[in-house]
Every structure is written in structure tokens, then in C-alpha cells.
């Protein structure tokens, strides 16, 4: 079996994403797409979640596809990502479009912030600050947070259902009782989404994707992250060159 087949490169395309969404929607007579607030209220609840680690551009593409097929998802956004800046106009506008499509914005908090000060007080203080910031930026009630790259220690330490009035996507109850499917690092870590959606005996269901892995064409995980990095580089370079042109300045080489 070659690498492409072993890691299911063909799964991670926009076209296949749309197909999988439609497959999920076709079962809504028995499943209910919900938020973390309502995860335990239905007998067959499913949460559709995204952690935006790298690419807001890819996230918006997925959000548009979801809106077209009638799925509303939770998009967890980082305030301190190395890949994007939520204050940058282009990024800010795209995140607001995601919100306008009916999706929920959540807080994606980097666990590096907690490793040096791993106290509940520190987590609550950080979440309170980010909640105020996000609600000011996006004019939407912020209800949920997820950890970025959580260790077992972090998840075991911060196991409660809520902190700072926000639902914890990695609470002990969710980790223990919800079925989970994730595409972390650009491949299926536990089970293919295709197979996961076929199961009818595990609820609630949590589907986690990272938008950077879903591209128009078939690529390896390494190629997908390189695509995002090169796209970001080109965006910054174009902005700089446009600024020079607007002010009548030279780009001396």
C-alpha cells in the first residue's frame, strides 16, 4: 500500500468534503446538529467543529460549503496564531463572513499559555480576556472554547464542563462519552470520517477538522501545509508591494 492510499490523501478535497457533508445531512432525520450547549439534550446529537490552526482562507471555503448544504459548525479561532492575525483586515473580514453564514465562533486557546502557569485561575483569567475580545470583534456571544495541542496533563487538569462560563470542548464528560473523529496533522488519527458517519450506535458524535488540510486538489499533508505557508507569504508580499505602489515608492532590490 503506497503512502497516498495508506493516509487517504484523496479524502481531503473540497469535493469530497461536500460529499461527506451531504452524507451527514441525509441522516438528520435521526441525528441533530447542535452546539456544545445542547450536546446532551438530544439522543443522537452531532457537533461539527473546526480548529483554525493555520488557514482562515480554507476555513471560509469550508464554511461556505457547509452553509450551502445546511450545516452550521463551530469555528475555534486563535488570538495568537503564528499563521494569521485576527486584527488584520482581510482575516477579520473572512472570520466575520464565517459568522454571517450562521456559524459559531469559539476560542481556541494555545496550551503553551498554561504550561508555565497551569492553574485554574490562570485559565479563567485568560478565557475571560479572550471572551471580551472576541465578543467585541465579532458581535456574537462566545460560548465555547477548545485547547490547541492539549497534553494529557492539560486535559486531566482542566476536566470540568465549563470555565469562565464557557463550555469546554475537552471536558472529561465529552472525552469519555462522545464518539470522536479527528483529522489532526492531515490524516485520520482514529477513524476515517467516511466510516465514522456510517456508525449509528455511538452518540453524541464530535467531528473535528482543521481547514488547512482540505484543499481543491489531492495533496499530501506536507504539501497542504506548504500551500498554506506559501499562500500567506504571497499575501503579505502583495500587500507590501501594493503599499509601495500606492505611495509611489520603489521596491529596491
Strand residues, percent: 15-25%
How do the SSEs run, as a string of H and E?
HHEEHEHEHHEHEEHEHEH
Q: How many domain regions?
A: 1
Question: C-alpha Rg, in Å?
Answer: 19 Å
* CATH class placement: Alpha Beta
Count of DSSP H/I helices: 10
CATH superfamily heading:
Glycoside hydrolase/deacetylase
Largest sheet: 9 strands, mixed
Q: Specify the overall morphology.
A: globular
Mean pLDDT: 92
Strands, total number: 9
What low-confidence regions span 5 or more consecutive residues with pLDDT below 50? none
The proportion of residues forming helix, as a percent range, comes to: 40-55%
CATH topology: TIM Barrel
CATH architecture label name: Alpha-Beta Barrel
Structural class: alpha/beta
Taking the alpha carbons of the first and last residues, their distance comes to: 48 Å
Outline the secondary-structure elements.
Blueprint lengths: L2 H4 L7 H12 L6 E2 L11 E8 L3 H14 L4 E4 L11 H12 L3 E7 L1 H4 L4 H19 L5 E5 L3 H6 L4 E2 L2 E3 L3 H6 L1 E4 L10 H4 L8 E5 L11 H26 L7
Parallel strand pairs: 1-2, 2-3, 2-9, 3-4, 4-5, 5-7, 8-9
Antiparallel strand pairs: 6-7
Helix pairs in contact: 2-3, 3-4
Task: Give structural attributes.
single chain, 253 residues, alpha/beta, 10 helices, 9 strands, 42% helix
In short:
With 253 residues, this protein is α/β, with parallel strands linked by helices. It contains ten helices and nine strands.
Explain this structure.
The chain is α/β, with parallel strands linked by helices and 253 residues long. It is globular. The chain is 42% helix and 16% strand. Strands 1, 2, 3, 4, 5, 6, 7, 8 and 9 form a nine-stranded mixed β-sheet that branches. Helix 3 (56-69) links the parallel strand 2 (45-52) and strand 3 (74-77). The termini are far apart. It has helices spanning 3-6, 14-25, 56-69, 89-100, 112-115, 120-138, 152-157, 172-177, 193-196, 221-246, and strands at 32-33, 45-52, 74-77, 104-110, 144-148, 162-163, 166-168, 179-182, 205-209. It has a single domain (3-246), classed as Glycoside hydrolase/deacetylase (TIM Barrel, Alpha-Beta Barrel), CATH 3.20.20.370. Helix 3 runs parallel beside helix 4.
